[in-house]
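Data deposition worksheet. Section B asks for the primary sequence of the deposited chain exactly as it was used as input, without tags or linkers unless they were present during the calculation. Section C holds the resulting structure in token form. Section D is free text for depositor observations; keep each observation to a single sentence. Incomplete worksheets are returned to the depositor.
Section A, Depositor: J.P.
Section B:
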Amino acid sequence: MKKILLAIIVTVLAGCASVVKVEGDQIVNNRLKITVAEAWNKVSVPGTSQPFDSWTQEGLSLDHLRFWAAVRPEQRLVELPSGSTPAGQKPPRVPTFRAGMPADEIVSLFEMVYSVDGSVVTMDKVAPARFAGENGVRFEFSVLRKRDGIRLKGTGWAAVRDNELFAATFVAPRLAFYPRLAPKAEAVVHTARIL
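Section C:
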């Protein structure tokens, strides 16, 4: 019964979202240029403000490609909804970028991004890589999503230029959606360039 109620709530909330088809050259936060060969859907939820762009092929609960551009020191990578912490409980740690963070700490920020709702995140692989024309890091991770018990797989890319963080992540259910959509997401991510 709880899963059915949750599905109804997610559907109602998704109905409030603004969805725009994106293709061609796209600019994120006036600082990151991305070229989209195959259309994606950019999703914005009115009344919320996140420091990233969210794109999807099948719907945000099934897959999402997120882009962070020019995150400054002491800026959060995700904003928690007001009133999301039950009374009497400590609020979860919010991932916040700091100047001079080494690659392993940057990867830990994204572990926090995906576990802030209580989901369980496991980093599977971390390696140096180029992102947006800069030396950075590529990481793969697994998520056991708390709200519905679905197992997700994710890939992330991050680089720092002039003490600003640029990053992207792609996450989808590991058995069906991730194998099909990850190559499309990776193709988009490889076009990213800092402006």
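Section D:
The first strand starts at residue 18 and ends at 28.
Residues 1-15 have pLDDT under 50 and may be disordered.
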